[in-house]
Design a protein that fits this description.
The chain is of the alpha+beta class and 186 residues long. It is built from 6 helices and 5 strands, in the order ααβααββααββ. Helix 3 runs antiparallel to helix 4. The chain is elongated and about 50 Å long. The N terminus is likely disordered.
Length: 186
């Protein structure tokens, strides 16, 4: 089977694209409503910081869910690291960001991605949050997670070489989706 760069990694999304069916209907589109009933409020798909750091690198931005966004994220992160005197992090951080952004864009094609970069406690922390929904079926959830981890093999190699750690987990409520993160020590 031929795979284009815009093919969804998630097996449910890939099948939905092939058949034209939406795999995760919006809750308000399936609920019956009367003439005076309003649509339920859904949480905004953005993570917000609770405050500002007095010093250090603190960068957050949103990107389109497109594999080409990896270049934009990589460029922004490299510029921010250089501007904050953190040039030694440029190589591993830009590789990690490009991999995370490209893979998360393929997990949630067409949906926005949130990117956060922080430097504190002598470590660099990168977070990419995508809006890929959790699968209620255990087999499908396992397959989807396996595909995500396999697609991030280069990220794993870079982070391991740098002595860091990485992972992915379901986002905390009220956000929906998956948070992928990297921590690179000095």
């Amino acid at each position: 089977m031929h795979s284009s760069p815009f093919t969804a990694l998630c097996p449910v999304l890939a099948e939905a694209r092939r058949t034209g069916l939406h795999p995760h209907p919006h809750p308000s589109s399936t609920a019956p409503r009367g003439p005076h009933q309003q649509l339920p409020e859904l949480p905004e798909p953005y993570l917000r910081s609770k405050g500002r750091s007095a010093h250090g690198l603190w960068l957050s931005f949103t990107l389109p869910g497109d594999v080409r966004s990896a270049f934009i994220g990589r460029t922004a992160i490299a510029a921010a690291l250089k501007a904050h005197g953190l040039a030694p992090y440029v190589w591993p951080a830009t590789h990690a960001a490009a991999e995370l952004i490209a893979v998360t864009a393929r997990m949630s094609p067409g949906k926005e991605l949130y990117v956060s970069l922080r430097h504190r406690d002598d470590a660099l922390r990168l977070l990419v949050w995508d809006q890929h929904p959790h699968h209620p079926e255990p087999d499908m959830a396992t397959l989807c997670e396996t595909r995500r981890r396999r697609a991030l093999w280069l990220l794993a190699a870079v982070v391991d070489d740098w002595g860091g750690e990485w992972g992915a987990c379901e986002a905390n409520a009220p956000q929906r989706g998956t948070k992928s993160w990297v921590r690179l020590p000095r």
